[in-house]
Specification:
heterotrimer; A alpha/beta (218); B mainly alpha (196); C mainly alpha (176); A: 218 residues; alpha/beta; Oxidized Rhodanese, domain 1; 9% strand; elongated; C: 176 residues; mainly alpha; 9 helices; 67% helix
Amino acid sequence: MSKTYKSKKILVSRRYQILALVLVLLAGGLLLLPKYHKSEGISPELFVKNALSTERYINTDMLADRLINQDPTILLIDTRPEAEYNEFALPNAINIPLKDFFDEELNGYINQDIYDVILYSNDNFYSNEAWMIGNRLGYKNLYVLQGGLNEWFKTIIDPKYPDETMPQEAFELYSFRKAAGMYFGVGVAKTETLDKPKPKKKVITTPKKKKRVPEGGC
Amino acid sequence: MGPLIPNGLIPVEWNYIIAIFIGMAFGYILEASGFSSSRKLAGVFYGYDFVVLKVFFTSAVVAVIGLYYMDYLSWVDISQLYVQPTYLWAAIIGGMIMGVGFLAGGFCPGTSFCGAAIGKIDAIYFTIGLMFGIFIFAEAFDILEPLFDGSNLGHITLPDTLNMSPYWIVFIFTIIAVVSFAISDKIRNKVKKVFY
Amino acid sequence: MENKKHANRHVYWNPYFGGFLLGLLIILTFYLTGRGLGASGALKSGVVTVVHTVAPNHAESNAYYSKFIKEGESPMNNWLVFEALGVILGAFLSGAFTGRLKFKIEHSPKITGKRRLIFALIGGTLFGLGAQIARGCTSGAALSGMAVLSVGGFITMLSIFGTGFVVAYFFRKNWI
């Protein structure tokens, strides 16, 4: 064998050895990679930012307005315990107490991006808790009723008559609230048992089915 | 987040167009690596040409390492990829029949397409034979059905059965592949050369 | 050394390079479509379509064909069929670029062309039968199966090549 041929053969063989080494190193790299737990949902920084902003709050007037206009895109979720829900709840609200947050059937109502989910409770507490969990996991369209049912009572059911010195808007707001109150059944004689309308189960296309299973074969 | 079409990131209508392009690339690579020649394909069994071993193993190792890296980087979700169901006895016996067919005919379906495309008449005959074989299978299906449908172990993967971390399996697989490449070169130097 | 290269225009790619590209292609296929490659499935669709056209009643009453016959949709409407068309096209292009397009029967000089063709036919029949039983061939089951570390893929591949090595002795006259 000529010298050049021999040296060329060694060179080629050296090249293959390097390539083989690269391959083994890549495979080994996979082994040694830190096994971090892939966190599901949004990053902690984004979460804090969302928590600090007040965008998620919807105040009672806006909610009343949407309910009266029969806005089909909202979904009311009552986050209080069942007993309180059975006593009184906003019309067409679905009861999902915090302990049932991940219940398979009920989670579908919260974890979807078709309807706007409005969480409420007596004050802000439970609804904010629910919002925190949902937002951390990246659920969309979650809102919190500001002040909860307590605020609801104070504004819609029993609004405060504004003082003389208040601007015109305050009076308009007051009359709006009074009208809303009547829509929701304020002023109806207590003897008539308020037929609490059963919350119509809104049909939510389960987003789980959207994932198409890949076909395969030979 | 891949895979793209099952997750709806690409509309489904593209599926067939992608199929054609992927097929074209597949055919090109196979033919350019020499898989359209039956004598090269049969070489791995006699030691005079190991192209089948090299291409097969290299592509499998590259693919599996690439997929697992992409899974780590969250570009692909490995659990969503299609894993074929394991029918134990069907795979073994079918594989045995295929092994005999491979040695007799010198092709496999994918490479016979390549051979037929460039005009190799034996590849065309092989493809016709394939169709005969499928026809015979369908006609004799009643007899063969228990073998075909039996012992379904489900869509299992190696990490599940061996209870090992997939990364170890990939690593060992790579080592085996590299070692076999080295051995194949040594064998090739010792075997009588065949020219074609 | 240089003369040999010029005379032999059938220069194939370096197998490692081809394997590397093929590996990348498999990754791309899985990334785009979530499934691997395949070959024999296309022929199966072809056979089913032909039988269905020629003898529709027989096709429907047969337990195997009826699995693939759907109302109003031809069995050829299948990912693998399109992929197989692409394979043929791609191989043709590659052959065209490197001057390998030629009608010939490739056989060892020790046997006749006719014998080669007969064996190709028999081999094809056996392979087709085996591929249906094992639900896959080397590209679909073995290659794509190994890429996702599927047990079925590994078993099929080991079975094919294992048997191949065992029976290679009996076919040696054809090749060496």
